[in-house]
Write a structure and sequence with these properties.
The chain is mostly helical. The protein has 10 helices and 5 strands, in the order ααααααααβββββαα. The longest helix has 23 residues.
Length: 234
């Protein structure tokens, strides 16, 4: 008999996608995710373990995947992403440990490494945006006296926004001069920019990258493993 679509594995994946979908929507709309979301789906993770065909094996698998927890906490404390993102990764590890729908390879760190790779996509978006502005003969560095190197970095790291929203400034005032400033923005403490006509870097919620990383994991596995495998096949 074919496996039911409601087996524990599929329920884990479905629950994880629902959790990440809700978290992504909340973070986009409010830039805040209430802890109740992680509590609810943490409870769901426990129930799925209890009612799995082999609770002990499920507990071992989830426990092994939870080695991501200290890594997520360390990354959160360094300010690379927020506490909600760390909690999301931890609950995801318990809820759908190493879940995959293909035959690719995964590890407890696959979602995180996939997310890290997806997180560099704004670099390419910024570059394209700035190249288009330059091609339209816009002086995107009007009012700045900076080195060529800093201007090149700015082209990749941000853009000049007329009315910035949910982004962080990458410029500062020194007297009457405007200078580019690539100081680190702590994910928990940094304030969004509200000054018009400012060079900014987009403050994209990291939960979106985690969601993208998990979806990619489900369909294809680990990006790094796939690249290594394809290189070996050449």
């Amino acid at each position: 008999m074919a496996e039911s679509v409601f087996d524990i594995h599929n329920l884990q994946i479905f629950s994880a996608l629902v959790m990440l979908g809700i978290a992504s929507i909340l973070d986009i709309r409010k830039r805040e995710i209430h802890d109740i979301l992680w509590i609810v789906f943490g409870a769901v993770a426990i129930l799925l373990i209890i009612f799995s065909p082999s609770p002990l094996d499920s507990l071992k698998t989830s426990g092994f995947s939870l080695i991501i927890a200290p890594v997520a906490i360390i990354i959160w404390r360094t300010g690379l992403f927020g506490g909600a993102d760390a909690l999301g990764l931890i609950v995801l590890a318990a809820l759908a440990p190493q879940a995959i729908l293909s035959h690719g390879l995964v590890t407890p760190f696959t979602t995180l490494t996939n997310a890290a790779i997806f997180s560099i996509t704004p670099i390419f978006v910024n570059f394209i945006r700035n190249v288009i502005s330059i091609s339209l003969h816009k002086n995107i560095f009007d009012g700045f006296e900076e080195t060529r190197l800093k201007k090149i970095l700015a082209i990749f790291l941000g853009y000049r926004a007329k009315n910035p929203k949910y982004s962080f400034p990458i410029e500062k005032k020194e007297g009457n001069l405007r200078k580019l400033d690539f100081s680190f923005h702590h994910a928990e403490n940094a304030q969004f920019c509200s000054t018009s006509d400012t060079w900014v870097t987009p403050g994209i919620p990291y939960i979106l990258y985690i969601t993208a990383g998990f979806v990619f994991q489900l369909l294809f596995g680990d990006i790094i493993f796939n690249v290594i495998h394809n290189v070996k096949m050449i």
